[in-house]
From TrEMBL:
Alphabetic keyword roster: Hydrolase, Magnesium, Metal-binding
Protein name as it appears in the record: Exodeoxyribonuclease III
Membership in a protein family: Belongs to the DNA repair enzymes AP/ExoA family.
InterPro entries tied to this protein: AP_endonuc_1, Endo/exonu/phosph_ase_sf, Endo/exonuclease/phosphatase, ExoIII-like
Amino acid sequence: MRIATWNVNSIRTRVGRVVDWLVREDIDVLAMQEIKCRPDQFPVEAFEQAGYRLEIHGLNQWNGVAFASRHEMTDVARGFADMPGFGKPITGQEDVQGEGPNGLPLEARALGVTVGDLRLWSLYVPNGRALDDPHYAYKLAWLEALRTDAEQWLAENPELPLALMGDWNIAPLDGDMGDPSFAVGRSTHVSPDERSMFESFSPTVTDVVRPTVPEGYTFWDYKAGRFPKDEGMRIDFIMASEAFADAVTGASIHRQERTGDAPSDHVPVVVDVDPGRLGESYEDEDDLDRPMWF
DNA sequence: ATGTCTATTATTAATAGA
């Protein structure tokens, strides 16, 4: 079972490339971010003809998250319970769809689905823009709410195979930052508060890609030749619970997808999961090759 | 090199966001 996350930077611009990649790489489930469209604008036919179902959460031309899956998706959640909104306070007259616990309009940044035993989230963490920008406080509050809710999901079910996948807009380690326009400790994505916030997700969820792929970026800005100079950033992550992590058999970052005609500025991040290693299969009589610590 | 992409509004040029 191959599960992936990819910030596609407009699905309408990228549909051919994304579907080709899904089929070529034999991907079962893809979490997309920055689809930049509403569901009625999403190019569903190309995915369906390739054998994928879709769940789409898009409110306007900004943000937007979605799943493409070869398998049935259930328990679809648009946003998580404590997710804050952003913008002008809602007075009741605006054309907004949803209001956060802070009374501000919700953005399309989180979509949860269940596939088999797996609980999967496609997440587009707010960028932050600048340390003194209101979007920066929003970023930290959004992440804190996500961590709070994720901790609760796992408190209710410690064996839940949960993955929080997407564009986290944080480069946790110095080696994850190769873009000289970001100063470690003094810019967004690499500030102490953002890195502390990222660290605070552990051990609830941990990075299941880095153990297999210790180095490499997932994003290169379009500007200033960042890709040819390999001045990128590692900001896309698959963060998973212990039950999920125990079933991971491999991982990869598809750097090649930053090349060629009209690439996204992000590349896909992939994990391979062995469903036989998940908790529901422990009782299977033929599952005798499972690790003995189960 | 205020560097490049995207989408929208309004009309082939401007704006805004990342």
